[in-house]
Amino acid sequence: MQVETLSGGNMDPVVRIGGTVRRVSGEWTEAVHELLRSYESAGIPETPRPRGIDPEGREILTFIEGVTLEQAPPETRWRPSILRAAGALLRRLHDASEPLVARSVVWRSESHSPVEVLCHNDFAPYNLIVREHRLVGVIDFDMASPGPRIWDFAYLAYRLIPYAEDAAGFDPARYGSREDRLGELIETYGADFTPLEVRKAAARRLEDLAAFTERRATETGRQEFTEHAAMYRRDAERCRDGTSM
Length: 245
Description:
Distance between the termini: 49 Å
Shape: globular
Low-confidence stretches: none
Radius of gyration: 17 Å
Structural class: alpha+beta
Number of helices: 8
CATH class of the largest domain: Alpha Beta
CATH architecture of the largest domain: Alpha-Beta Complex
Largest sheet: 5 strands, antiparallel
CATH superfamily of the largest domain: Aminoglycoside phosphotransferase (APH), C-terminal lobe
Mean pLDDT: 95
Oligomer: single chain
Order of helices and strands: EEEHEEEHHEEEEHHHHH
Strand order of the largest sheet: 1-2-3-5-4
Helix content: 40-55%
Number of domains: 2
């Protein structure tokens, strides 16, 4: 059967074999598969289904057809319906994860306080799958861990409002002002976060991500990781002082 190397995979190689995805497994895999099964039980069709471990020791997940939102053209990536769909999906994932929060299991990423739900920890355009201008999936749950709802929400806001420096093709005249888009995302998720709380949480999230990315740059020698970390720190500063709003 043909093996296709998939894009992304900054942490570990990812391949597609038929209708499945194969990824490096680890001590965290059992917890992640339990989380994915909880989404299936909750009737959430947008997540991969775990199918065990293959003879090479890799986890097996179902493949979700489509392209990442990051690969989609601006008219798809920034359309308000995608923003609303992403906020609604994140809320469903968080709600479905609540019964698993108190379990003593191994996660690949560290937890963040206050623990409220299981966070995806990278709920962003490069992990969101779209087809025909519709959000149909979210992938890459291997970095999931317990944390507060706003930890995931603020990073989604950073990427889709957007506050990110590399938000190519965003036009507020066409897709809505950042203020309006943040209000819509908060309303769709169904939280009582204030815009200031979201921006402060985004800044904390970006500082954490910058430190992680700098460590990866040291481990791998990849210059682009150093550049990404520098961007995260610039964006964190803008989120704190409001200059990108």
